[in-house]
Amino acid sequence: MNLEVLKDRRDHIIKKRSEIRDLPACEKESLAGAVSQRACVYSGARVVLNPITDAIHLVHGPIGCASYTWDIRGSKSGGAQTYRHSFSTDLQEEDVIFGGAEKLYQALNELVARYRPPAVFVYATCIVGLIGDDLKAVCRRVTEETGCTIIPVQSEGFKGNKVEGHKAACDALFDYLIGTATRDNNYPYVVNLMGEYNVAGDFWAIEPYFKEMGVRIGATFTGNAKVNDLRSAHGAKLNLVQCTGTVTYLA
Fold first, then answer.
1. 151: alpha, beta or left, given left = phi > 0 and alpha = psi -120 to 50?
2. Which of 128, 169, 120 is nearest to 145 (CA)?
3. Which candidate, 231, 228, 169, 219, places its Cα nearest to that of 191?
4. Of the residues 2, 132, 137, 192, which has the fewest C-beta atoms closer than 10 A?
């Protein structure tokens, strides 16, 4: 049976045994429909960042946004389980009217005091973009007061879809984590594995092959990753991209 494909969706589809051409246009917005890249900006950012196992992930927005959490993807961890908790500022009508910055400040201080994480990712949602909370200012203030790295993720909606969320996550990593620490350079062959999220523990199947070749994986973006591994990721000799749609922008 032959199914007619809409012209504007052809670049997003590859048929088996068809003519050879480039990879599908993963980084571009597709039309609504089945197998479509039309989730929200925030969800795209969460896909990239949530597998960082020892970080706190705080959603600044209504409680409904926090439903998109670890169990949507189910990435595996070989150690820390902090990333499996879902935290939200639970913005209400009063916060929409008077602003939610103070509520965010209080939530961050409570989380840092209770969990002592190496970093906290703070995700902006649609409502935060509308009311204009200064996410960067609040994060900078808590970083200065507590010494914990608080990272604003500009993933508010109305500026695109899931693909823009991937970019927002990459910007957060590049601006606030990568390059903030150095690694031991005595090992000659170090690579970063980009776009590998260890969803079914697949990273643990891949890693032994690199070891057999004498190649060390410095950082994984971001399956089973730890904050300090990402800080020194700039010291790798090569970035190997597995998921082109999410991290090619960063690589």
1. beta
2. 120
3. 219
4. 2
Closest by alpha carbon to 63, among 41, 95, 99? 95
pLDDT per position as a tens digit, 137-190: 999 999 999 999 999 999 998 888 888 999 999 999 999 999 999 877 677 889
End-to-end C-alpha distance for the chain, whole angstroms: 40
Note down the domain range covering 75.
41-176
Q: What is the CATH number of the domain that holds 54?
A: 3.40.50.1980
d(CA 48, CA 192): 15
What is the number of domains present in the chain?
2
Determine the angle formed by the axes of helices 135-146 and 101-115, rounding to 10 degrees: 30
Q: Scanning the structure block, which residue is given the tokens 């906290």?
A: 120
**Mean pLDDT value across the chain:** 88
CA distance 163 to 43: 9
Strands 190-196 and 149-153: unpaired
**Domain membership flag for residue 170:** yes
Is 0.70 surpassed by the pTM of this model?
Answer: yes
